[in-house]
Amino acid sequence: MNPDRYHLTLMSDGRPVMQGWWGSEAVARRQFKVWIGERGSMPDARITLVDEETGEVLTMWPDEA
Fold it and tell me: For 28, which of 6, 16, 35, 57 could close a Cys bridge (C-beta 3.0–4.6 Å)?
């Protein structure tokens, strides 16, 4: 297991505020939800979860529909 595979980034006002890396997708997705609850009210907040191994964006908040 790669401990840095799942990368979570919190941006506010276009600047990175927090980053975290996890080896488990399930843990990273739980942390994603925690960050939304704890930091989603920051100005222009955007939270992104990326699989660093594949380069795929797994999810982002708010959704870009």
Answer: 6
